[in-house]
Structure formats: structure tokens, C-alpha cells
Amino acid sequence: MRRTLITALFATILLTGCAAEPDRAPDDAGAIGMDHLVFEAEVREIAVGEQLTFSNASSRALHVLVVGKEAQPKPQEGAPSFGGASGHRSEVGDRWTTPPWTTPGTYWVTCTLHPSMNLKVLVSE
Fold this sequence. Notes:
Elements: H1 2-16, E1 32-34, E2 43-47, E3 53-56, E4 63-69, E5 72-73, E6 88-90, E7 95-97, E8 105-111, E9 114-124
Parallel strand pairs: 1-3, 2-9
Antiparallel strand pairs: 3-7, 4-5, 4-6, 4-8, 8-9
């Protein structure tokens, strides 16, 4: 009886999976998660030529990403395009990768709908 119970428990563990990150799909590794009102990181450091990937993990929030701070679009010379003044519209479940960041510097990314969502991007050579 005991051996059967242990075997059943072991089989259940194997069948339900032991994913390292159960809340994130494997292809989201390295992505900046967005929940309802926050980015999962406050600062992201990248090298010139790299891109940023954003993943909208919120179960209910639309996000509109722009270069700027505190929900205010403010274009910064050297920052890649986020789709013009209207920015990138990120629906629930959306995954989006920016064009390459080609100029060293400090930049800000914000959500025009949620002023508390601010990400500092440090681009170095």
C-alpha cells in the first residue's frame, strides 16, 4: 500500500511537470514582465545593439509603451522607435521586442496608462 502511494505521488509529480518557472513560458526568458501596474524590473542594463523584449503577463491590463517617464511620452535622441507618438499597444499576453538600442545612454520607458510603470534603460558600449 505504502509503495503504491509513493509510486502514485512520484508519477503525479512527473506528469504535472517541474517547470523551473511555472508562471512564465520558456520563450519569455529574459523578457521584462509587465503586471497590472508595474514592470518586473526597475532598471535594465544592455549593450549597444541589443534589444529589449516586453511580456504582458497581466491578466487584465492593456499597456501602451513609449519612451518617456511617468506616463508622459518624451522622445529621447538615440532611443529606438516604439511606434511613434502613440507607442506600442501591448494587449494581455502580448510579447514585443524593441528595435536595437544603438546609442549609449540612459533612457526611460513608461506606460501611458499607468504612471507608476517606469523602466530605466542603461545602454553601454
